[in-house]
Write a structure and sequence with these properties.
Layout: H1 2-5, H2 11-36, H3 40-49, H4 51-60, H5 64-83, H6 90-110, H7 119-124, H8 132-161, H9 163-168, H10 173-211, H11 218-243, H12 247-289, H13 292-295, E1 316-318, E2 324-328, E3 334-339, E4 345-350, E5 354-359, E6 363-368, E7 371-376, E8 379-383, E9 388-392, E10 396-402, E11 405-410, E12 414-419, E13 424-428, H14 429-433, E14 439-443, E15 447-451, E16 454-459, E17 462-466, E18 472-475, E19 486-489, E20 492-497, E21 500-507, E22 510-517, E23 539-543, E24 549-553, E25 558-562, E26 569-572, E27 579-582, E28 587-591, E29 598-603, E30 617-619, E31 624-628, E32 633-638, E33 644-650, E34 657-661
Antiparallel strand pairs: 1-9, 2-3, 2-34, 3-4, 5-6, 6-7, 7-10, 8-9, 11-12, 12-13, 13-14, 15-16, 16-17, 17-18, 19-20, 20-21, 21-22, 23-24, 24-25, 26-27, 27-28, 28-29, 30-31, 31-32, 32-33
């Protein structure tokens, strides 16, 4: 065993080992986010972007770590600045700075004769030259990295899955992005002396990528990545000592090799697990056919097949949102579902005299005469708070319900459908998902909203909290005179009141209400009576009669009136997002969310005829959709790009009414 321990009896190898272990921990913290968020190109670019700072520091006789830090910081600022330009993608800015910084470094190196010997060390590192002072720097860097990781964990998680969700939760995604880039910068600067500017990327990304095969929680991925990085460091130093290879390059090569070994082992594991599941299924089928008494065994001897997290029977899970539009032609009675990914439409029945469509994220409720047709769009999202699942299933017509549905809200247990007469029908949501309409009950004279495993019922001037079986729990103390309009956000359930909005929040069975009053006295004609927003968003919009439109920021607890005159439709994607409004002359306007100043406008439709159904503005995370019934088209608008027309869909019907599902 002397070959195993002899190298580490030498002082400089011991320092190299400690340096590599510290760097492995730093890279595990930062590299996990690089892998999870898909920031590999940014990490690679910043690793190469260190070269000019290191070159200048060496030329002036300064500290190389300081030079690397300044160079990386300059690149991080540049990436953030260019990333704010909505005309350019993030990759464009990173690529420009990547090439520019690398070119500057090569020019500096080429113009100085003193770099002839040192260039290899800059590019590939010199792990055996780590000094005691370098170890102290690495300890400090690790402490800072741990602090950033712990304090920013919640914001980083929200930012990874949905930046708008981070906005809604008040987590300041722009600051979180800066902190995350700073964490990556810290890891790269701390690591380059070990493996060099060209190989630091391998140590940053290979161990976390390998760890994702064996762990699915971010803290566990970080811990396992640190262990794998330590294994790569120790093994790389041993190979380097006995084979006479470059230490930093060998460490990076071992790290990459561990990734491929993990990938192969995980593939073998999954294949064996798949065979085990099939065997268990066959055994379970046999037990169902053969009487247990005759077999002399028990069903308990067959291990249960574990249901995958997020599994939905009869549905296919997707990595991307399955956004779809339910369209209805009031004149011809045609109903279609347009898949925004494939751009194909599917017939979903016929219904003469359609009056409106409302939705709950998956189902479209099409009001016809004195009944409502329920259409399953086949696209929906399940939100688990820190992550989401997207699903697709066949499009189908579920059935017909008595009464006209004017609003629909669902949770996993119940679908609450508010009727035109003010009553609410409660449907069993699991049964609805199976294609059956099963009523759980009716609430007369009250609009119900599923929230926090309860029902919030607006009746009279009060909001009552009830169980899903309509049993009374409590009454919100804050009154809500003449409740009209309601919405569910990530910061609570919102009810429109004559004097403002009532926000109800519930936590661990305790419900409280807070009133957000209008900034001044508002007439009945100008109050908000119907909210529009992206599902879950804490920023709501509503028409304000002849005055313009309201914006309600639930997080900041304030109303803002945009006095732009009468509008026929208004919407926004969430906090900090562009405000969109359509006027009767067919012009689509965008407004700054902070100042309500108009930022762009485009003539989109023909002027709205008297008595014609008003078009709708629907929004998701990237696009807005406006229906043009006279022309039989639906327009997709890039609202963050000066209202650019991204796509035009020919609907094969006059899309008088429209509703989006999938997000």
């Amino acid at each position: 065993m002397e070959w195993l321990f002899a190298p580490f009896e030498v002082a400089f190898v011991q320092r190299a080992l400690w340096g590599g272990l510290l760097v492995s921990c730093i890279c595990a913290l930062a590299g996990t986010w690089v892998v999870v968020r898909g920031m590999a190109f940014l990490g690679d670019a910043m690793a190469h972007g260190m070269l000019p700072g290191v070159a200048v520091a060496s030329l002036l006789g300064g500290n190389l770590l300081v030079g690397a830090a300044i160079s990386c910081a300059a690149m991080a600022v540049g990436v953030s600045a260019i990333g704010r330009n909505k005309r350019l993608s993030a990759d464009t800015g990173i690529g420009l700075l990547f090439v520019g910084m690398l070119a500057a470094g090569v020019i500096i190196v080429s113009r100085s004769q003193s770099f002839a010997v040192d260039l290899t060390g800059f590019l590939f590192g010199d792990v055996l030259a780590v000094r005691d002072r370098d170890l102290l720097y690495l300890v400090v860097a690790l402490g800072i990295a741990v602090l950033i990781t712990v304090l920013g964990h919640r914001a980083f998680v929200a930012l990874t899955f949905d930046a708008r969700k981070a906005h809604t939760l008040g987590l300041r995604p722009q600051l979180a992005h800066v902190a995350l880039v700073g964490l990556v910068t810290l890891a790269i600067v701390a690591s380059f002396h070990i493996v060099g500017t060209l190989l630091v990327f391998g140590l940053l990304i290979a161990p976390p990528a390998a760890a994702t095969y064996w762990a699915d929680r971010i803290p566990m991925v970080m811990l396992l990545a640190a262990v794998l990085g330590g294994v790569a460091t120790t093994t790389g130093l041993l190979i380097s000592w006995h084979a006479g290879t470059a230490g930093g390059a060998t460490i990076a090569a071992v790290a990459v090799a561990l990734f491929f070994l993990s990938a192969l082992a995980a593939a073998a594991r999954d294949r064996l697990r798949g065979k085990g599941v099939r065997t268990a299924a066959v055994a379970a089928s046999a037990l169902a056919v053969v009487p247990l008494a005759g077999c002399g065994t028990s069903a308990e001897t067959v291990p249960p097949v574990e249901t995958p997290h997020g599994y939905v029977a009869g549905a296919e899970e997707s990595a991307e949102p399955q956004s779809r539009l339910i369209l209805a032609d009031r004149g011809a009675g045609a109903i279609k579902v347009l898949d925004l990914t494939t751009e194909k439409s599917v017939d979903a029945g016929r219904a003469e005299g359609v009056r409106r469509i409302v939705g709950d994220g998956r189902y479209g409720y099409v009001s016809v005469g004195n009944s409502t047709r329920i259409v399953d769009s086949g696209g929906w999202m399940v939100d688990h708070g820190d992550h989401v699942h997207y699903y697709r299933a066949p499009i189908r017509e579920v059935g017909t319900l008595g009464g006209q549905v004017v609003a629909a809200h669902s949770d996993p247990v119940v679908a609450a459908l508010v009727l035109e007469d003010g009553a609410t029908v409660l449907l069993d949501r699991p049964a609805l998902d199976q294609g059956s309409i099963v009523e759980r009950g009716r609430i007369a004279g009250g609009a119900a909203l599923p929230y926090a495993a309860h029902l919030l019922v607006a009746t009279g001037d009060k909001v009552e909290v009830r169980t899903r079986d309509n049993a009374a729990v409590t009454t919100i103390a804050e009154p809500c005179p003449d409740p009209r309009g309601r919405a569910v956000t990530r910061r609570g359930a919102v009810f429109g009141c004559a004097d403002g909005a009532l926000v109800v929040t519930g936590e661990e069975g305790t419900f409280t209400g807070q009133k957000i009053r209008y900034p001044a006295e508002v007439t009945a004609a100008d109050r908000a009576v119907e909210f529009t927003h992206r599902p879950g968003s804490a920023t709501l919009t509503a028409r304000a009669g002849e005055q313009g439109f309201w914006t309600l920021d639930v997080r900041k607890k304030n109303w803002t009136l945009a006095p732009v005159g009468p509008v026929v439709a208004v919407n926004t994607a969430g906090e900090g997002a562009t405000l969109l409004a359509l006027t009767r002359d067919g012009v689509l306007h965008s407004f700054d969310p902070g100042t309500t100043r108009e930022t762009a406008k485009v003539v989109l439709l023909e002027p709205l005829a008297d008595g014609a159904a008003a078009p709708a503005i629907l929004v998701d995370s990237q696009r807005a959709y406006v229906n043009d019934a006279p022309r039989g088209k639906v327009y997709e608008i890039a609202y963050n790009d000066n209202l650019r027309l991204a796509r035009t869909f020919t609907a094969d019907l006059a899309p008088t009414h429209m509703m989006e599902t999938g997000e």
